[in-house]
TrEMBL record:
Belongs to the DNA2/NAM7 helicase family. GO terms for molecular function: 4 iron, 4 sulfur cluster binding; ATP binding; DNA binding; DNA helicase activity; endonuclease activity; hydrolase activity; metal ion binding. This is DNA replication ATP-dependent helicase/nuclease DNA2. It comes from the Eukaryota. Residues 51-255 form the DNA replication factor Dna2 N-terminal domain. It comes from Gopherus evgoodei. Its EC number is 3.6.4.12. It is an enzyme of class 3 (hydrolase). Gene3D superfamilies: 3.90.320.10, P-loop containing nucleotide triphosphate hydrolases (3.40.50.300).
Amino acid sequence: PGLFQKRAVDFCDTTLSKGLNNRYCVLSINIVEKNEDGPEKHLTITAAQSLEDTELCILRNDWYSVPVVPGDIIHLEGDCHSGTWIINRDSGYLILYPDLLLSGTTVSNSIRCMRKAVLSEKFRSSSRQMMIGTILHETFQQGVPSNFAHEKLQELAFRTVHGPKYLKEMYCLNLKQEEIMQEIEEYLPSISKWAEDFMHKPSQANHNKMQLKLPSEGKIEDLSCNIEVTEFLDIEENIWSPRFGLKGKIDVTVGVKIHRKSGTQYKIMPLELKTGKESNSIEHRSQVVLYTLLNQERRVDPEAGFLLYLKTGNMYPVSGNRMDRRELLKLRNQLAFYLFHSMCKSALGNKQTQLASLPPVIDDSQACKYCSQMHNCFLYSRAVEQQMDYVLIPPALVPIIEKETQHLKLSHLQYFSLWYLMLSLESQCGEGKKGLGSEDCIGNMIRVEHVEEASEGQYLHYFQRKNGTMPGTNLLVGDRVVVKVNVTKFPVYWTGNTNRKIWNLSKLPKDTIFRLDHEEGISGIDAPLRNLSKLMENSSASFVLNNDFHKPQFIQRLSSVLPPEAKETVANILKGLNKPQKQAMKQVLLSKDYTLIVGMPGTGKTTTICALVPAPEQAEKGGVSNVTEAKLVLFLTSFFIKAGCKASDIGIVSPYRHQLKIITDLMTCSCISTVEVNTVDKYQGRDKSIIIVSFVRNNNDGNLGTLLMDWRRLNVAITRAKHKLIMLGCVPSLCRYPPLEKLLCHLNSSLNINYETISVKYFVPWSPSQCCRLLCCSYSTYSVT
């Protein structure tokens, strides 16, 4: 099936060596038939750069299936006798492409479907559950100093949810802070109960007994024990293991006392937090097993770890035995093979580079139906693999794949495969390893001066060259760097990041040698691949493809889309741009659908895009927000709460999102964050005791807009209140909208309300313009006095 392409860029800088972190190059492979135990693979390998001084590696039993080929770099664990390594079910490990570090999560997710794991590495995405899990992890980690007191956990969770860190992700997922906080609070009592059970009641003989078998204990009759968590040694311990080709962030590294009848044993173990369903599944357990391997990079083998389900507070022990580790490392090798060989040479005469096949599609239509990578899986199968004769697709899935991709034409599928290949080639060209001779790397560094704590959990470090002058470097102020520690007994890696804690390096020995590498962040093709996938979806967002890349449509005059109030603000945004950048900005503002901005590197595309983000927002502000009304809403809300109303009984409604943003900001500044502020559409089918409606519009001429013309929206807005409805608006302006004009006339005739005499100046010390009036309509005898 195709001749796999060897990527010299990955091997040219690989230093072959023996020892703990050995690196061998495979020179040749010989298959030897054995009648008793099946065939063996005999690998001729070398750790010499000259490719001489060869050794022999024999792969027996299931290790025979490792997809190793001549030219590969491998790492070997075990014993070497007289230049011969023997890797079998009982001893030794072989790690394929050890410098390709895969996370424990990725490897464990490949157990049921290798294809899904590969696609998840290529097409990264977020979800509601992933974000909630991240917030809960952070809350748990911050709650350690307080021993997980319930009140403190609530405070930490509220601060995390309402902080700026997760706002972007919430926006992308169309989630509100209030609904996220409501779900987070369901977990907090269980976290407190776990702390009470495993941190404060360890001495009780029959309390929370569990069965734990450590491999080093041999045969023991009674596996039951009590677990006491005595200390938290690290939070999100980031370990990269070039021995096992693994990496991972261990949620919590804990010191544990294991109490048995025969005595007490102390161990440092990984604690993995899970926020999903309590399943104690093979994927969850496998992740802990892999973390026991990672721990060996820093300390003695923990032999086991723990799974903690935050929803219930239940904790399970997971033993890291030889068999589980062996099978997971074999899975890791298969996964590394597919990720490494994402492209191959065509078997045809032209030998062109083409996309390689992915792991086979599993024959389980039910599992595929609920798979998060179903779209990308079927798309790749249809666009790439169906053109290959050697790729077999389960017959039952063929009609399902056709149905899911039937909206795509042949030209669309060719577009996908072409740009997937282009992005893969681009990624390959940028993956050369940095050496000490590179100007993106500075080695032989030592830490000087005292460590300064910049903020909670973040530290400021100073480095200088141990010997000689500082070499020339491409590093600039503000660049992210990876700090590598060149200590054999403590090989660790940290990534400096303004959003994460940075390790206090003063804990390391004073003579520790560091190396700083430029950190380029997430792979440069992640976002383009994600966009490419989105373009292929059967949704309105992919209208460009559905219309075969129709030419964009533009409005003729900028004045028709830019309100007079916003012109000065937008002009200020344009001040720092050159003429071509301003022209690009204008075209975007005039666009009805989309605009493509093309420019060579260094011509200012990023600057233009950064300026584009606030410009349409400012244009929108001129017509759909009213700060005076927002302040009135705040005043009325505060008034009702002081009079005894619950904040949860008050709802604030507006048809305009910008107005809601202003109101929310005012509420937050006034510490009133539990009042629900939402659009009319979001209140469909729901109600509150008190509803305050902000109509916003106060223009007597110009564009009316369409939102207030919709009588259905108006009907929803005025029927959400159980007891009291308060409408805020400028009467002359609202009378220009037929539905609102009818409503105001009806209220005037039925309830004898004189709009001219009910002025807001009687309610607040700062009065808006005389055109704004307050109209109160009580639907019952309930009132505030």
